[in-house]
Structure to design on (285 residues):
């Protein structure tokens, strides 16, 4: 058995101000193996985003972080500046809830996708463009060449999220941190984007930390689940979905309609009929 790709142990994060101290992460521990997908689930405010920020050392300056974060055996909390840059740019890819907040609105899709390759890796612009087109194609963006010339506002949320996935894959990371990547999308775009992320990470053998408040969705695309509550992981393992132990998990499971119920409430348009049927079939299985 090789060591896990990501190892988080007893991670604490506190926000320290002049007047008070807020303990927001209270000893988070989990591991993620190579090629494995872990769903980190919990209600809003439970500390999921802070956990991803701590893993990439992107917490605001007022935070104090203690504990261990190891990536491929290397202590992330001890990385020097240059190494940290490389870690964020190459080892880990991040996908967020709102893709629009993470693109420059005055840059084209093509600029966005090729920029880092050209600037940081010395790839020639034509080659970078070729790779961008190929990746857009792989994540199901049609007319990829034409898309390169478009601006973010010309793309739907679902399409822009696919561009995000393509940009992350272009960097060839080993680990993807996806923080509520489908939450801002409507339910069909949601399943679409999730399916692509799932397919691509499996094809490439990447590890995924999938963060969501949707236990059912996490269960559908992850090998393992961990449930967060008030800055702690209260339950993790294979039984979380089928036989939850912690009262909070039981509540979380009971709280929301199933994917099938949610789909039933939606008008079915011709273009999404196929996805709709596929999802229903999965939900019924
Ligand atoms: N910069 C901050 N200042 C103060 N409180 C914060 C800050 N960032 C996050 N928090 C608090 O930490 C808790 C966890 O936040 P977060 O990790 O964003 O939750 P979520 O699980 O919804 O992603 C919340 O109570 C939130 O209000
Ligand atoms: Mg969050």
């Amino acid at each position: 058995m090789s060591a896990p790709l990501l190892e988080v142990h007893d991670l604490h994060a506190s926000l320290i101000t002049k007047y008070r101290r807020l303990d927001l992460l209270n000893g988070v521990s989990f591991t993620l193996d190579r090629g494995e997908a872990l769903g980190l689930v919990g209600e809003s405010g439970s500390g999921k985003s802070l956990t991803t920020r701590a893993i990439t050392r992107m917490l605001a300056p007022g935070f104090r972080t203690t504990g261990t974060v190891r990536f491929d055996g290397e202590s992330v909390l001890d990385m020097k500046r240059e190494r940290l840059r490389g870690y964020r740019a190459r080892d880990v890819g991040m996908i967020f809830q709102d893709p629009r907040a993470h693109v420059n609105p005055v840059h084209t899709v093509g600029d966005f996708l090729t920029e880092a390759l050209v600037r940081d890796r010395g790839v020639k612009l034509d080659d970078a463009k070729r790779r961008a087109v190929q990746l857009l194609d792989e994540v199901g963006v049609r007319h990829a060449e034409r898309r390169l010339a478009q601006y973010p506002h010309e793309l739907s949320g679902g399409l822009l999220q696919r561009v995000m996935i393509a940009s992350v894959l272009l960097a060839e990371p080993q680990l993807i941190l996806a923080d509520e990547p489908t939450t801002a999308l409507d339910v069909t775009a949601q399943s679409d984007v999730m399916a692509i992320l799932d397919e691509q990470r499996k094809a490439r053998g990447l590890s995924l930390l999938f963060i969501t408040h949707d236990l059912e969705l996490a269960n559908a695309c992850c090998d393992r689940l961990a449930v967060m509550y008030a800055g702690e992981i209260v339950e993790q393992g294979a039984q979380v979905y089928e036989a939850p132990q912690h009262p909070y998990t039981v509540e979380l499971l009971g709280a929301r309609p199933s994917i099938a119920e949610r789909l039933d409430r939606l008008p079915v348009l011709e273009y999404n009929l196929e996805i709709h049927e596929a999802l229903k079939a999965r939900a019924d299985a």
Notes: The chain has a mean pLDDT of 89.
